[in-house]
Design a protein that fits this description.
It is built from 3 helices and no strands. The chain has 125 residues and is an all-alpha fold. InterPro entries: DUF1068 (IPR010471).
Amino acid sequence: MDDTVLDVDQVENLIKFCPTKEEMELLKSYTGDKESLEKCEQVSEFKRSLNTVNSACNEAKKLASQYQKEADKCNSGMETCEEVREKAEEALSAQMKLTAMWEIRARQKGWREKVAKSNAFPYFI
């Protein structure tokens, strides 16, 4: 598996850590004493980190959506394959019954199976 690609569980866990719009607005609208928040550099670093997290969350949401679309396509394809397999089994069963019926009838009419030396196909005697 590719270590550079996030799986669905990792994407969902990242989304849980994303701040809500309300939390973002509270941070952006903060007008209190910046000194009480520690150094201004820490606030700037936090904002940069928050932007990085937001970008990662948006990307994670896109990936989760793409994964879901692909999963839906796979499920649809699997259902189609299952339907085709079931129909093929039914057709094979019907063909085998028909073949058995014709073989019984041929045997009643005197047909005996023999393998010719030149080929492996049965022939009538």
